[in-house]
Amino acid sequence: ASKQAQLMEVLKKEVRAMLIAAKAGLTPEQLEEQYMAMVCKPLPLRDLGFQCTLELVTQMPEVVRICSSKNGTLVLKAIADDSTKGIAKLVANQKVKTRSKASKKTATKVNAAFPTKNSKNPQSFQTPSAGAPVLPAAVKAELQDLLSSSPLLLEDLDKAFLRRFGRAFQYRQYGFSSMSEVLGSMSDSVVIKQTQAGSLLVLREYLANNIEQEEVPQASAAEMPPLEPICETERYQAALLMDSEPLQTQAVCLGDHLKRRQGFGHLSPTPEMPPDAVQDKSLCSLPPLKRRCLVGVIAEFVISPSQFYIHVCSTEASYKLQDLMFEMRHVYSHKVASDKYIMPESAVRPGQLCCVMVSKWWYRVIIHRVINDQEVEVFCADYGHLQIVQKSWLRFLKWHYSKLPAQAIPCSLAWVKPVEGTWSSAAILLFKHLCRFKELVGIVDEYVNGVLYLFLCDTSTKEDVYFHSVLRDMGYADVCGENIPSQEFEELNPSALYVQPSGKQGNAEVVEPDLCLQQESRDADSETAASKLDGAKL
């Protein structure tokens, strides 16, 4: 009974956090999906003696208000307590901003909120627009793939998406209020033409010319789990559909095999190894961001405030990763080419750069550890996560696919530490909600042991929301005025193990963030003072 009571109290906090973050509320089904995505397992209905989610929330009258929408659907909304009223107010004030107004307003507010110690009214920074909903890269690629074979009527999109990918296209979970808003965010690649039959969605010619129809090897959903760990929302597709427990990634001692990688035995090309297969090469990282610059970012994979990975919002970099995925899919999906790059057992070893197919898409990965005769754990350098996959899914990476730098940047939230020594599940849940499917403004502080420490700000509300302040105000974090090395990354940082720092690989293709996203302080002689934020304003 005491365990049930403790579980119920924890669950109330988690449910309240989820519902507060959803401005319009959630249906019971949506609550189940979001809980699975955030907590990595289904709602503990049976453990608490409930038959359904609605029965559960009726026993939380101080947490959940059950409402009825205009169409009769039940909607669950949060009842804020004293500690969450401020967050609820911020969420209620959320609004959609135009790009030009957002940029101008955010620049003014960020400058006002982050003065340097030697300047009362600096005009040092220019911020990118942020706050608009953003489709995950893999979902955007799926829509483009769906339209690559032929145009599609808007009214048929949902059915076609469900038929192709085995799930409904739930655009609302990415922050969009309508399908037209989704298509507006893809105006660079999708055109809407009005016909007598209705609105016709057409992939722009410049992109469609690069995509050829191909016969993709058939695989069942059971054989192809998503590459992204089950416990993360973001970025691929079937996390909400999985019923299994999350995989537990273990830190392993890699000293021996890393020493071997320094003199990585060069494997001579054989009939089993094409001459253009990557053997002893590593990906390089993106160039470091300048201290105090403001940059648009998307949190791709979040474990905690001290351990997450971001993508820099750069049109050029985004297209290059997207084009790489399309080209890899085109090449490796043909059986002759796929068989040519099958990796022999001797090449399947920790530190080997290769690629893996998951749900018809190919991703660049590094083998982290060999688990058994059938499975390996790989690190996805472009998205930041570890995942267990079958050895048979691995292929040698073609040499020219290794030129693009690894796109995932390991990060920690600057100037904060958990009040309890480790981040509580409620703190992690809140941080994930703050990051979820949004373009954010990052304020770069510094790099520590290869990890980027930055402040994060959501500018999609009437008042800018600084994540370190939210965690502090909720009682989850202390603002300490310095960056304490992330314990999580100290235990295991795959990027540091497997990705070469920018500039150490001569033939690597350098991808700089958009210039408008990286503005250095014009006060060049006060770099030291500008490197830290005014603690009084935190």
Automatic annotation (TrEMBL):
Keywords: Cytoplasm, Developmental protein, Differentiation, Repeat, Spermatogenesis. GO terms for cellular component: cytoplasm. The keyword Iron does not apply. The keyword RNA-binding does not apply. Residues 7-80, 131-206 form the HTH OST-type domain. GO terms for biological process: cell differentiation; spermatogenesis. Its main location: cytoplasm. It is found in: Cytoplasm. It comes from the Eukaryota. Belongs to the TDRD5 family. This is Tudor domain-containing protein 5. It comes from Mohoua ochrocephala.
